[in-house]
Structures are given as C-alpha cells and as structure tokens.
Amino acid sequence: MAPPLAPMDLALSLAEEAATHGEAPVGAVVMEGEVVLAAERNRMKALNDPTAHAEMLAIRAALDKRGTGRLDGCDLYVTLEPCAMCAGAIAHVRLRRVYFAAEDSKAGAVENGVRLFDQPTCHHHPEVIGGIGAARSEAMLRDFFKALR
Questions:
Q1: Is residue 148's pLDDT more than 70?
Q2: What's 68's DSSP letter?
Q3: Between β-strands 97-102 and 27-32, what pairing exists: parallel, antiparallel or unpaired?
Q4: Is 48 within 8 Å of 24 (Cβ atoms)?
Q5: Catalytic residue flag (residue 55)
Q6: How far apart are CA 47 and CA 71, in angstroms?
Q7: Parallel, antiparallel or unpaired: strands 27-32 and 75-80
Q8: Torsion sign, CA atoms 91, 33, 39, 60
Q9: How does pLDDT run across 64-118, given as a tens digit for each residue?
Q10: Contact status, residue 109 vs residue 87, Cβ threshold 8 Å
Q11: Residue 1 above 80 pLDDT?
C-alpha cells in the first residue's frame, strides 16, 4: 500500500483554510480508491451547527455522491482524531479505513477517550492509522488555540 500522503496533504490544506475563517483547523477527505469523493473543513461557526465537523460534512457529501447510504471500501483522512460523534458516523457508514494526523487527548474517541471502535457494541471496526502529518496538524491546532487565548 502506498503512503497516504496526498489525501492527508489535501486535508491539511483544508484545515489551514478553516483556520483562516476562524474555525478550528480540521480538514477531512473521503477517498474511494484514488478518487476524492469529498473534501471538507470545519464549518461549525459558518453554519451555526455544532455537528458541522469536517468529518461529518465530508461523510455527508461522499454519501450524496455515492448514493448508496454506505461508504464501504472508502477511506477517511482527517487532520484530528475523530470525536465520539464522528467516530459513530464512521462506524455507521462502514468506512474501511481512517487515517488521522494529530491525536486528541481531550475529545478524541478513537485512540483516546471512549475508544469507540474497540467497544464490543460497535458494529463496525475500521482499520485506524494515526500520526500521518501529525506535526503539521499539531502546530496548526496549537497556533490557532494560542491566538484565541
């Protein structure tokens, strides 16, 4: 398997764009093979919607494009470890694999917190690969939240 650099680079670019719009710098890309199905950034402020996380928006857009109600065989690239809401959506749409950049020790739900995919009640367990582009994502997040204080 080739290193997943290009989709994560796109997600990181979207995270930078989110920060320029005053949103937490998170970007997400859904891939079906080599095809970008969806690429989104956080838009919670812009849409006045606390569920408008990059992952949720990318999943919704990919579902619309695919028209199947599932994203089996697809991969998600996201710049921050998914929260419980996003992890639940990932399980429900049956994404094959999740790549994330930075861990989120406070609100992450994949390798931190509730570790949703490890729970026996979770009906789908995607492969998870963390740390791709972590340094760039962590720096963006640190700079963004430092500027807010």
A1: yes
A2: S
A3: unpaired
A4: no
A5: yes
A6: 24
A7: antiparallel
A8: negative
A9: 999 999 999 999 999 999 999 999 999 999 999 999 999 999 999 999 999 999 9
A10: yes
A11: no
Catalytic one among 55, 111, 127, 138? 55
pLDDT of residue 5: 59
Written as one letter, the residue type at 53 is: H
Mean pLDDT taken over the chain: 95
Quote the distance between the C-alpha of residue 61 and its chain's center.
13
Distance CA 122, CA 106 (A): 21
Burial class of residue 88 in the structure, from the number of CB atoms within 10 Å of its CB (0-12 exposed, 13-18 middle, 19+ buried): middle
Candidates 44, 73, 84, 78; CA nearest to 58 is 78
* Token pair in block for residue 142: 């640190």
Question: From the centroid of its chain, how far is CA 69?
Answer: 18
For the record, the structure tokens of 10 come out as: 């796109």
**Nearest in space to 85 (alpha carbons), one of 109, 112, 102:** 109
